[in-house]
Amino acid sequence: MGTPLSGTQTRVLMRGCCLVSRIHSTLNPAMLIGVCSQTIGAFAKGMLELDHAVQKMVLESLGVRKERVDSHLASLVYDVRLSRYGALAPVTAGDDDEATTYMVAHRDCSMVTTITQHEVEGLQVRGRDGAWITVAPEPGTFAVVAGEMFTVVTNGRVPACVHRVRTPSNRERLSVLFGSSLKHGAVVGALEELVDHGRHPLRFRPCDFDEYVKFRFGQQRPGLNSALQEFCGIGTGTK
């Protein structure tokens, strides 16, 4: 694997995000691309290596052959997203979760997302017991979030991570997300090595990614815990 981004490179990227958030209204799109492209390109290269390393470790540890892992990774597409959460109003005693939540609890419908936080906490993941765990924005660390398509690929062995964003009062939060997903028109199924008729019977029919996105975000939106199961699940649902 190549050399990952150093802590200094990550800080430069996040400072660049701060700069973009301040000057985007004064630059035309072409100029903005020129300001950001080199830094974001370097970041994306490092994140691609990290994404591949994580997926390889998980899949190979589950017994998937290297050739099949490589084929899976070659079928994916990637994107970089810059996120800015403005400061919320001061929280007072008695405020419920919605008053302090910027992004509600959800699962990503993609494959894997790697999140870089900048100084201000906010990302929370839900544990098996239902409790929310805050992911501290430690320098040089990344949060890797499994999405629903990774659940399909692993035949339910890796559940999609339920997460949300809660921004502290009066503090702006910046983050960068590097995501792997499927090409338009792609149909994904469980990898062959992860299906058997004993302990791990097939849990999902082949999933048309585009159709699943339409189903999940359409007018008849299914519940948080039922979307994937309703669309392509077999037997008992995911939890």
TrEMBL record:
Pfam family, any one: 2OG-FeII_Oxy
Keywords, alphabetical: Iron, Metal-binding, Oxidoreductase
A GO MF term: oxidoreductase activity
Gene3D superfamilies: B-lactam Antibiotic, Isopenicillin N Synthase, Chain
Domain called Fe2OG dioxygenase: residue spans: 76-185
Family to which the UniProt record says this protein belongs: Belongs to the iron/ascorbate-dependent oxidoreductase family.
Name listed for the protein in its UniProt record: Fe2OG dioxygenase domain-containing protein
Organism name: Zea mays
Lineage, broadest ranks: Eukaryota, Viridiplantae, Streptophyta, Embryophyta, Tracheophyta
